[in-house]
């Protein structure tokens, strides 16, 4: 059985918000985003180090992966088993500001490593 990463409650809310936002204009694109998130959960579950480390945005053990076909980023803890996606954010946002809580490794409250 393939291993899957998991969405923390915060990331799950962010995923739902993104899907709803896109669905207002294109239900088909919203379904494609949901499928792309599901594919990324499998990919990260099988290959936890596939994302890039960006310490200026999020300290180790956090890594960042692009959601294929969409301008969204998944920020995840590669050291948890299974890996935990802690944030799902649009790439055009002010990432240093949005991800402030992930620098200096103080895991957010919804992170299972905490």
Structural commentary:
With 114 residues, the protein is α+β, with helices and mostly antiparallel strands. It has a single domain (6-102), classed as 2-Layer Sandwich (YaeB-like fold), CATH 3.30.2310. It has helices at residues 9-23, 27-46, 95-98; strands at 6-7, 62-66, 72-77, 84-90. Strand 2 (62-66) and strand 3 form a beta hairpin. Helix 1 packs antiparallel against helix 2. The longest helix has 20 residues, at 27-46.
Give the key terms:
114 residues; alpha+beta; YaeB-like fold; 4-stranded mixed beta sheet
Q: Enumerate the strands of the largest sheet in spatial order, edge to edge or round the barrel.
A: 1-4-3-2
Fourth CATH level, the homologous superfamily: RelE-like
Radius of gyration: 13 Å
Strand content bin: 15-25%
Q: Tell me about the largest β-sheet.
A: 4 strands, mixed
CATH architecture heading: 2-Layer Sandwich
Q: What layout of secondary structure does this protein have?
A:
Layout lengths: L5 E2 L1 H15 L3 H20 L15 E5 L5 E6 L6 E7 L4 H4 L16
Parallel strand pairs: 1-4
Antiparallel strand pairs: 2-3, 3-4
Helix pairs in contact: 1-2
Give a quick summary of the entry.
With 114 residues, this protein is of the alpha+beta class. The protein is 34% helix and 18% strand.
